[in-house]
């Protein structure tokens, strides 16, 4: 199966993946992102104001992948801001 893998165009260069976390308020989106990116758990609830950002690195088949996670606020007050930020993330 490894023989069928396409050759990398730029060896050594890391790949970047963007992920957007969206959902209702107070469901744990930020807690999951903090746990995944920072390896810690936040037990106190702090509402996300607008957008937050997390980053981590993973290795797949000897290649480094940077995972950028955008944490969108879940409260309806911030819905309009979410629309604007989604365009910027692309």
From TrEMBL:
The keyword 4Fe-4S does not apply. GO terms for molecular function: GTP binding; GTPase activity. PROSITE patterns: RAB. InterPro entries: P-loop_NTPase, Rab, Small_GTP-bd, Small_GTPase. The keyword GTP-binding applies. Keywords: GTP-binding, Nucleotide-binding. Pfam families: Ras. This is DNAJC27 isoform 3. The lineage of its organism: Eukaryota, Metazoa, Chordata, Craniata, Vertebrata.
